[in-house]
Amino acid sequence: MRARRVDARFAGRRAARAGLTLASALALAGAGCGSDGVLVSGRPHGERPEEVSGEIAWSSDDPALGSVMYGESPGRYTRIAYPLGRAWEQEHRTPLLAEDGIVYHAKARAVLPSGEIVPSREFSFVSRRGRARPEILSWTMIDVGWGDAHLAVGPGGKRILIDSGRPDHVEDLVTFLMDELDPRTPFLDVVLATHEDSDHIGGLVGALDDPGDGILERFTVGRIVLNEAPESITPELAKVLEIAASDSIAVTHLREGDSDTGTEALRWGEGIGVRVLNARNLVGDGVANNGSIVLRVAFGSFRLIAGGDLEAVAEARIVDDYGGADGGSFLRADVLKVNHHGHDDASSPAYLAATSPVVALVPSGSLEVACSAPARSVLERLFALPADVYRSDFARPVRSVPCEDDYGHVTVVSDGRSFEVRIRPSAALHHPPD
Ligand SMILES: [Zn+2]
């Protein structure tokens, strides 16, 4: 077997193509200048960093899941940029979404079919935008311990909270939102609960015996979005409906097939397509999880699918009904919010094959609860795709050993042509002061 070797190159596009002849080489292409579409260059770490703008491009001999990892400290990567399209392409390119004028330390990376990770040498660059700031869609998996809470912000600044974690983690959620959003304008355009379970809807109302501490009472909320038909009216759902009535907040019950073209609650911003793939329990097993709202979000070429706590039996229904659409590509997702916290009763092989994500987001709090998730079996299925897995209790790029201090918020940012993952620590949420 040939030795795997990485030969990071910091030359022009032509040189990068020559690099394709190197066994398993990962070549980082550079040079170019001017308008939209330029390549960027970098210099090996330790040399004076070069200014780069526009795009990063790289290639590898072995088709592989490729990404560029970068951050402001050597060896500490907080941003991971992925090309759009499929994991098994040889030539990758991704727009640079970094802030202007910052020295970044970076390396490219490929995951071979064997699972072997082949990194390039580390290099440095100073970011310069080669074009106007792009319109951005962001999706953050918020670390709220055990539970789901996600914030989507559309290109025009619309704020959509998807699930809200458990009541006892509402302060974590509020802290994140006040940090993330302008505290002078504490409003959310839409709050959506995928289903009525406490670890998804609880933060909207907070502790039931403590009026006033939920999201609905502390933020100005434009609209509440619920699934079509809950399996039961949980105490949290009852309180949501009570607050909506008393505060005159509009409530929309989504139905399967609803989309941004006909449903105001799904209009997240210019260029964002949102479609509902599931909004009630159609499998008839009485399990609330299977009534979870499933969203397919499209922005340019970028695709994200998120489906609450959907279990395998309901995933199968979605694969049956949508798996063949668009020539079999309708369910393809660059980013998949993994169902049911990564439990083995979800993320079936068929669902993962149909969605085939490059990045998987798993909201979990395994260090806090006895029944840990994600399940090893689910992780193995994701790694086999191969997908990079990000967990809220382990916010690091893929395949390292979990460590207690790695709790974090994980944000996916896309300009419709590419996407990157940004990681922010949230350790304080799990380690309250003594
Ligand atoms: Zn849940």
Short descriptors:
434 residues; alpha/beta; Immunoglobulin-like; Metallo-beta-lactamase, Chain A; 2 domains; 15-stranded mixed β-sheet; six-stranded mixed β-sheet; 18% helix; 29% strand; disordered N terminus; binds zinc ion
Please specify the SSE layout and strand pairing.
Blueprint: H1 13-18, E1 26-29, E2 43-44, E3 50-53, E4 55-60, E5 65-71, E6 79-83, E7 91-95, E8 103-111, E9 117-119, E10 123-128, E11 137-141, E12 149-153, E13 159-164, H2 170-180, E14 187-188, E15 190-192, H3 198-205, H4 215-218, E16 220-221, E17 223-226, H5 235-247, E18 250-253, E19 272-278, E20 294-299, E21 302-306, H6 312-322, H7 325-328, E22 335-337, H8 349-355, E23 359-362, H9 376-383, E24 388-391, E25 408-414, E26 418-425, H10 427-430
Parallel strand pairs: 3-10, 13-15, 14-16, 15-17, 17-18, 21-22, 22-23, 23-24
Antiparallel strand pairs: 1-4, 2-10, 4-7, 5-6, 5-8, 6-26, 8-9, 8-10, 11-12, 11-25, 12-13, 19-20, 20-21, 25-26
Helix pairs in contact: 3-5
Bound molecules: zinc ion.
The site of zinc ion (ZN) has 6 residues, from helix 3.
